[in-house]
Amino acid sequence: QKNLGILSPDEVELAKTLLHEGQSHLFDHWPDLGVDDDKKKGFLKQVALLNSSYPGGLVQYIQNARKLLADSKAGKNPYDGFTPSVPSGEVLTFGDDSFTMLEDAGVREVHKAAFVLVAGGLGERLGYKGIKLALPSEITTGRCFLQHYIESILALQEASCRLAQGQCQAEIPLVIMTSDDTHAPTVKLLESNSHFGMKPSQVKLLKQEKVACLDDNDARLALDLNDKYKIQTKPHGHGDVHALLYSSGLLNEWQNAGRKWVLFFQDTNGLLFKAIPAALGVSSTKGYHVNSLAVPRKAKEAIGGITKLTHTDGRTMVINVEYNQLDPLLRATGHADGDVNCETGFSPFPGNINQLILELGPYTEELTKTRGAIAEFVNPKYKDSSKTAFKSSTRLECMMQDYPKTLAPSAKVGFTVIDTWLGYAPVKNNPEEAAKVPKGNPYHSATSGEMAIYRANSLILRKAGIQIADPMIDAFNGQEVEVWPRITWSPKWALTYADVKRKVSEGSSISQKSTMVINGQNVFLDGLSLDGTLVVNAVDEAEVKVTGRIQNNGWALKHVDYKDSSIPEEIRIRGFKIDKVEQLEMSYSEPGKFCCSS
Ligand code: UGB
């Protein structure tokens, strides 16, 4: 009461609301007017931010928290009443007729899409100091994840517009969700690289805010231990992306512009864009409102499983169940062994890779109802079994893949399973943890993420008729991996399998020790025999045929140890560096037709 004089009418309202919600402890210690007034104003400023960045404001947050904390205390299982079963979805086989047809459909459709990259996570498990988007996806070219993503979107845009023949949408928008942890370095990465070729207006950053921490089961907001004029905050999770897209007004803007799809993806998957055309093709041909990309998943592997849940009251949904919940849920519903591999050697529940394709119309409609709020959960660490006190403060969390939870049963929710080698190789684990991964399960490290790119490119070229030597087995940072020839190409060279087939002819071969870098659109491999390193750079207007025998000492992989701090962190976390001994570099900066290697 005595401090009212320093607060604006809005701030007074906010303070009153908090008092009404049982938060008087936030103000109890406030000294008389004239003492710490600036700090009090600062406190209310933080409260206003917490209030405005949550759908429904702080009151809603506190009420949601009380309910979820009560459920948690009572040991209520969110899956009570639900029986899991294996859902049916599309299973794609790379390179067959249906895959090729879907890729074509996807490329035709993609100019009507918007891409949303969630990149607010710090990547604690990886332990890398910088932002993950700045990490090289592979060190042969040094292309970082963000560059790879942007170049892929630009190449898709160009290819799609070519097919749309004048009916093309304006540039494909890219939204990047950042957080206080990643925002400034993401801006810097974009600005210091001229947005990797994208128009600055084409990229929009939406920053997610953290949410208030909670001290007890009554959802009393936690004050910072070192600053009593500050509320403790923690990340709310990638589910924030829906509320941010809604409140930014972008969904309506996109709809008014005739867009049809929103594609969500994560920060470190160097393979993802190889699966996007076919997956979008599935969405458009099947009319899916929600399409989750999935991969075959080993039982208990640390990625969520796509599951069909049927409630005793008749409700059903196809949804991601996090790996730590799937096994207990199965055990509790009559599957004594829990989550186990079936005869295929994989769990029957495909692994969620958190790449979602949503149809914009139904998505906007749903978010208009929910204001972007999606199902949340809380995970308090209790002091003892009475569950009355926490070891440390907790907060509500949410995941973007929980979006379908609130949808009506009539919504068309499907999924698309792609081969892991083609579409999923995230970089999440540090070398030490990756080395502990049980044999046969994926490492999800910088080492495996890079090797997966070479493997995928090699397998694609092999399928297209090029003779690619078998890989060597080697171990880097304690992780055994297949080392294929280091083949990379810029996205504009090939986006689909059909593109690759058009650009290579049978009768070419590449040895295991080789490296091949293709930077250019119209580069054709015809009767090439490569044993060493070849780098081809060509402007779009140059048509280059690469043929003949190329042999040189090439580029060698050299082992390095992740603990060797004399080597840059982004290199040593892979366990190898590249010794560029010798290469043939062919560069074409003028229009025209060119041939040959020697
Ligand atoms: N992210 C944010 O943008 N904001 C946040 O607050 C948190 C994260 P993680 P996670 O593909 O293997 C997910 O930490 O959450 C971004 C799925 O839930 O890498 O442990 C962050 O920058 C899981 O079902 O993954 O697990 C990153 O781009 C499974 O599919 C993304 O969100 C798993 O991913 C994911 O964050 C997987």
Structure description:
By secondary structure, the chain is α/β, with parallel strands linked by helices. 29% of the residues lie in helices and 25% in strands. The protein contains 16 helices and 30 strands. It has an 8-stranded mixed beta sheet with strand order 2-17-11-14-10-3-4-5, sandwiched between helices. Strand 7 and strand 8 (227-231) form a beta hairpin. Helix 4 (97-109) packs across helix 9 (276-286). Residues 118-121, 177, 179, 235, 237-238, 266-267, 303-304, 320, 322, 352-354, 399, 401, 426, 428 line the site of ligand UGB.
**Beta-strand percentage range:** 25-35%
Number of helices: 16
Cα distance spanning the termini? 86 Å
Q: Whole-number average pLDDT?
A: 94
Describe the oligomeric state of these chains in a short phrase. single chain
Task: Based on the model shown, name its key terms.
30 strands; 598 residues; 16 helices; binds ligand UGB
What topology emerges from the helices and strands here?
Elements: H1 9-20, H2 37-52, H3 57-73, E1 82-85, E2 90-91, H4 97-109, E3 113-118, H5 145-164, E4 174-178, H6 183-191, E5 203-207, E6 211-212, E7 223-224, E8 227-231, E9 233-234, H7 240-248, H8 250-256, E10 261-265, H9 276-286, E11 290-297, E12 305-311, E13 316-321, H10 323-332, E14 347-359, H11 360-370, E15 376-378, E16 396-398, E17 413-417, H12 420-423, H13 431-435, H14 446-463, E18 467-468, E19 472-476, E20 479-483, E21 486-489, H15 497-503, E22 509-510, E23 515-519, E24 523-531, E25 533-538, E26 542-551, E27 555-559, H16 569-572, E28 576-580, E29 584-588, E30 592-595
Parallel strand pairs: 2-17, 3-4, 3-10, 4-5, 11-17, 18-22, 21-23, 22-24, 23-25, 24-26, 25-29, 26-30
Antiparallel strand pairs: 1-12, 6-9, 7-8, 10-14, 11-14, 12-13, 15-16, 19-20, 27-28
Helix pairs in contact: 4-9
Bound molecules: ligand UGB.
Ligand UGB is lined by residues 118-121, 177, 179, 235, 237-238, 266-267, 303-304, 320, 322, 352-354, 399, 401, 426, 428.
